[in-house]
Design brief:
357 residues; alpha+beta; 10 helices; 21 strands; 23% helix; 35% strand; globular
Length: 357
């Protein structure tokens, strides 16, 4: 996919130039940075002054060639923040809306409705009115409707932003299953790095309409200048782990990350060898220059400081401890501890500071 577009906005101009080839590309940045505008431009809902947008060899927009396909001809599925379901139609009719015509227009391969419903676990909702759905159910219905339009590209605009943390953690696996099952490329807008790290293969980091960085999600934060601009709410440490054993009485599960580093997380009623994804906030990790003694935290892990980014009194410290962990500190703490790159340190993490995705 080729994505070059300039769009004038009230306070700045959106200017993005990127070639995308990943299954899921995340567009990541703070609110008001131009993320939704970029999706609207791709979908044909926003006027682009200059550039070219191409998907799978099909030109959707080109200022040089004077091509500007209307939204209905672009073969793009769009899931906005609130799902935008039709309140006067049942769940079944919402899901089926436009799917037959879309299949003919887009020329996509067959996607069976039964398969989509099974993946998203919503067959039992078909007869309901959309007004009877929970937030998580409504988002899954909107996602099913978009998939059954057989799009060449699926656009998701912060689909989890309006949900609480518990619902977000339940919906993320459904999005991962859509990614793995249907092979529809996605562009996923979010201001949550947890969602980027959980779902995306590639990320564009945008601020004030400008592309600050792009790359593999774990690498985007390798620049101190970049990680310093990421807020506590945006960045999370997300790891794929494998269960070693679980102790219900002790209330904890022993896991290891891909590097082999072992961690204790809250108890999970699953057997050894099963995979999980876990996360921990940078603000929930303590950092020490000496191995601590006589503390209750279940995880004390040695590591090496790789990068320190500073911005407005806050610092983000990247620590290589087998896996890479991000730790949020104040600049005064960094100075007081005299932290510099390549220093050895210890990470201190409570077992129950980890959340299971």
């Amino acid at each position: 996919m080729k994505l070059r577009c300039r769009v004038p906005l009230a306070n700045f101009e959106l200017d993005v130039d990127a070639d995308l080839g990943s299954r899921i590309t995340a567009i990541f940045g703070p609110s008001g940075s131009g993320k939704t505008t970029l999706l609207d431009a791709i979908a044909g809902l926003r006027t682009v002054t200059d550039g070219e947008i191409e998907i799978g060899g099909k030109i959707l927009f080109s200022s040089a060639r004077r091509i500007n396909l209307p939204a209905r001809q672009r073969g793009v599925g769009y899931v906005p923040q609130e799902g935008a379901l039709f309140p006067h139609l049942s769940v079944r009719k919402n899901i089926l809306f436009g799917s037959e015509r879309a299949g003919a227009v887009n020329g996509a391969g067959a996607i069976r409705m039964e398969h989509v419903l099974e993946i998203l676990e919503i067959p039992h909702l078909l007869a309901r009115a959309v007004t009877q759905l929970s937030g998580g159910e409504a988002q899954r219905v909107a996602l099913a409707r978009a998939i059954l339009s057989r799009p060449q590209l699926l656009l998701l605009d912060e689909p989890l932003a309006a949900l609480d943390i518990g619902l977000k953690e339940r919906i993320l696996p459904y999005l991962a299953r859509v990614r793995d099952e249907f092979g529809i490329p996605m562009i996923y807008v979010t201001h949550s790095l947890t969602e980027v790290l959980t779902l995306a293969d590639w990320v564009l980091m945008i601020r004030n309409g400008r592309l600050l960085a792009q790359g593999v999600p774990k690498d985007v934060l390798r620049s101190p200048d970049t990680i310093a601009q990421v807020t506590e709410e945006q960045v999370e440490n997300v790891f794929a782990v494998m269960i070693i054993d679980a102790d219900r009485i002790a209330g904890r599960t022993r896991v290891h990350v891909e590097s082999g580093q072992e961690l204790f997380i809250p108890y999970v009623a699953k057997s050894a060898g099963q995979p999980l994804q876990v996360r921990i906030s940078p603000g929930d990790i303590l950092l020490s220059t000496e191995r601590p003694k006589g503390i209750s935290a279940g995880n004390i892990i040695p590591g090496i400081i790789r990068r320190i980014g500073r911005s407005e009194g806050q610092a983000m410290v990247a620590v290589d401890a087998g896996a890479e962990f991000y730790v949020r500190l104040t600049v005064s703490a960094v100075d007081r501890l005299k932290l510099i790159e390549d220093d050895p340190v210890f990470l201190i993490m409570k077992t129950h500071s980890f959340r299971i995705l």
